[in-house]
Design brief:
- The protein has 7 helices and 6 strands.
- It has 166 residues and is α/β, with parallel strands linked by helices.
- The strands form 2 sheets. A 3-stranded parallel beta sheet has the order 1-2-3. Strands 4-5-6 form a 3-stranded parallel beta sheet, sandwiched between helices.
- The radius of gyration is 16 Å and the shape is globular.
Length: 166
Amino acid sequence: MFETAAIKTGKLMAQAGIELVYGGGGKGIMGAVSQAVLQHGGTVKGIIPGFLASHEGLFTHDTERYEITITDNMHERKRLMFEQSDAFLALPGGIGTLEEIVEIMTWAQLGRHEKPVGFLNIEGFWQPMFDLLQHMSGYGFLHTEDRIKPKIIDSPEAVVEQLCSA
């Protein structure tokens, strides 16, 4: 179900002319999104640290619509992804996905950007995260809460509309 949603999201992004900037891996949800974008005529920029390149499996697409950048470390990867992105979307994923989207929300809270942030909440996957944010807010730990307003997106069909309208 998550991979199906990732493929649909990639297809819709390509059809809308949205370039995908992502973590560069060829496996899992990241790989599914990027493959779908390319298969439907879109463009992809993958950014991955060298130490992950062999583990994650790089694509060897022979296309002008696919660009891969290999960085020295995760910090450089995240900086480049941030600089090259107009919006951020977390699909269901693991601890790396969580770490990266929390950092993006932290930067928003600190006033470092006003780019839209969204969560593709397939089958309520991210609900515990939203509950935690509400819990933190209730205790006053989100000091600039107005800057942390992630979009909760329940379907791939709503991704393009909600992130582009933000």
